[in-house]
Amino acid sequence: MKPFDYVRAESREDALRADGRVIAGGTNLLDLMKLEVETPDRLIDVTRLDLREITRQENSLRIGALVSNADLAADETVRRDYPVLSRALLAGASAQLRNKATTGGNLMQRTRCPYFYDTTQPCNKREPGTGCQAMEGFNRILAILGTSDKCIATHPSDMAVAMRALDARVEIESPTGETRMLTLDEFYLLPGDTPEKETVLEPGELITAVHLPEPPKGKQAYRKVRDRASYAFALVSVGAVIDVQGGKIAAASLAFGGLGPRPWRNADVEEALVGETPSDAVFDKAADVLLADAKGFGANDFKIPLTRRVLKAVLSDLTGVSQ
Amino acid sequence: MTEHLKMDEVQPRLLDETGQGAITRPMDRPEGPLKVSGRATYAAEYKAANMAFGVMVRAGITKGGYSIDESSVKDMDGFLGVWTDHMIRNSAQGMMDTNPVQLGQRVQYLGQPIAVVAAETFEQARHIANRLKVDYSPEDGDVDPETASQVDQSVALDQGDLEQAMKDAEFTVDSTYTTKPHNSAPMEPHASLAEWDGEKLTLHGSYQMLKYNKNELADSLDMDADDIRILAPYVGGGFGSKLGIAAEAVGAAVAAKALKRPVRVVMSRQNVFEMVVRRTETRQRVRLAADKDGRLTGLGHDNRQSNLPDEGFSEPVTLATHFLYGGENRRYEQEVARVHRMAAGSVRAPGEAVGMLALENAMDELAETVGIDPIDLRVRNIPEIHPESGKQYSSRSLAQCLKEGAASFGWDQRKGPKERREGEWYVGMGVAAAARTNILMESKARVTLNPDGTALVETDMTDIGTGTYAILGQIAAEMLGLDPSKVTVDLGDTDLPAGSGSGGSWGAASAGSSVFLGAKAIRAKLAERLGCEPSALRLQDGMATGGNNRRPLAELMEGPIAEEGHIEPGDMSDEMQQAGYGAHFAEVAVNSVTGEVRVRRTLSAMAAGRILNEKTAASQVHGGMIWGIGTALHEAIEHDPRTGHVVNNDLAEYHVPVHLDVPQLDVMFIEERDDHANPMQVKGIGELGLAGAGAAVTNAIYNACGVRVRDYPATPDRIFPHL
Hints:
The structure holds two protein chains of two kinds. Chain A is an alpha+beta fold.
């Protein structure tokens, strides 16, 4: 670990003024620093800031950036109105990690691509321009959608998948005191030619909260497929909100984990469902749309048929159609 | 005085005569409270005055020469030095007793320890190790076992004509199975604190077999073994990875000597995944030829595996295949591909852990082909005598394990593939036999009985989490007629009599027999003083009875009586086929959408001679079954196809079962005595719990959903495409 300065921010102004890497729970950042994948000169500890509240506002639920994953999963409103989020949180990490990890930190966690973690290996995300070893290497857990010829990393969060399905928006405060609100699609960048840049967050900006809109109509589900029963990253996960009215799908919101460099959502998939009478054929069509551009890299090829199966099972469950 | 026994003939069952009741009962570990309250001191927890901190430097290339650039780090905070002297390429193999391969300034795999850095703090040392500039001259080297240019081939046995037997058979199975490499990944990483006093070296380490480790370390450092003392009173798991001296011990000793300061080196988790030893991957072909009744007429078990050049170890994949089932035509062929991947060596139940997966899967396939119950098939094929050597078997309760286990498990409720479904889940049952060769090793211990009715057991034997403290105390207590709480056990110090060390499931039998013998010699002295034959002596709760006399121990003793016990293997090991046996049962559910597997319950019926402590023995079997679940469903080292390095070198991506993967695990012991094994009639149980366990799980997967997984581990992607 490279020696670093440590600044404890006592106020939001402190945090926004200080120039350095923000740390909250540190469940991912500390590991990366020990391996010297990340070598910040200064850490700004924001855990003393007043960002631990979950507050109901008009038309939304505001989740402070420092609300722990454990507290958020256990929150009564979240469990009642946004069960997909509670389920997603509980599907992630372990109890100990969920106690430490925060809402803002979870959004900012880095990929679990093993080549990113090994500093003897080239990695365009860690050291731009050095190449990607994962494409022709061991890529079982890596992406099939949204990749570029520079990077095939996945975003590992479960929480963010559910938030994506719930149309959450990230509240960001800038050093000049301005606040902007971004959807997760706006917040996360695709790798393109710059896989080192994962979000639109500018230096000095701070995530202060996540806002969930009004609870959506319909049924919600989070389904995660993984290599062991707990404490494993998703091979494929689906966060879904489906509303059926009069035998037809009135609204659909679907986000996917384990498939792409960000929580994956494709409006065309939802369009393929809305207005349709739920059936196996309709579900297959939605899967066709989702996976039209999917590309495997060998060890992760299986994710393509697995995603189809999981998506169809989730849709069947939520619409009451038996497969 | 030393009570010496070479196990050349059957010994009387003295432990059936002693009446203390200390043995067999499920006594808690005496050191348990120390461990759970953090008071048991492990290697990395020792502190020495003026101690410096070392970190191993890892090679960044697969093969080639290297040189370090000390100037790149010498101005960094806390820098004390960097050394490449004496670096060992990988851990010593078990009982090697000499230095492992030492290459000088050469790299033979990515991740190899190439230097040790020392600094004033651990954090500084780690940072320096990360920043040290190393100049490499890379060379090409084979990393893929399937295409390696150097392959050592051997045919262990070619008996009869297997090809012809396969042609003539009514039923055959010819299947190929693959297993991925495994890592021991003990909870406690390898750690050493080295302190020099002139030419004398004291090492606090985490090792399994101290008498060998001392010699391995001495040889690695070019010094006299008599000048080394190793202390390892507590070891946080070994599973083979601490059988032989490892890089951190050599690194700590080298740095400490140069600095004239104590130096502690602790391996990172990533180091443990690279610098120690892995279990090799295997490709196994099993051929079975059977007559119309399912009786084997032929059996073949070939394997291909890999290791580094010049590494003597090969995984004994067919260890149990040789003696478990009959069939006169037999053939075994082995290929070891030489590749530049981390070294392969002993990992929990070397041989059986993966060899029995293939054998027991093939037996399951044969049962289906023949159309008989898998338990019937196995019982039918238990041979009268060893099918290759012709030896007699010692105790062998395999049939009882299969039958009594089946009855207890509810095997009669088993249905066919896809016949039992609960919601999305297919549910099925599987069985596999367990067999693990029983081994007796030379071992010494000193037992001291004090007039106050307390006793002391001393040996350099180790407790690697297995319960050695408990069972050695129980044996001494049983023999001396004391409550086990009166017996103190001192372990893990090379200044004490040399024990067998922990490995190969022989520790309890071997170190235990030496304690038994030491105590037996004390009994002889007490009998003499009481004026009776040793055979007439009864010791219970501090009272000695015999020859119409009954007296408190204290009255028979003028001072402490200390005797050394010394056991050696003898003719019984050569003349009799000795092994522990068992049967594993598993019920699993397979998700029809995703192919995810959940083990719902297991039962292991085990026969391992006399059980010394039903609690620690059951714990060993639980551990074995958890390994079995991991082997079947999760564990896999992934090597990069180009560099050969371990890609998933941490516990986030190298998956072992977590709590939610482990259901109710039941264990039953079949009452047994093995008169040929040792004077206590016990057999090893540790690795028996793993032998075959994973095959019960994969056989259950087939029974649940009709998918035969022949490529381990059975991750969802190996199942759902076939549903």
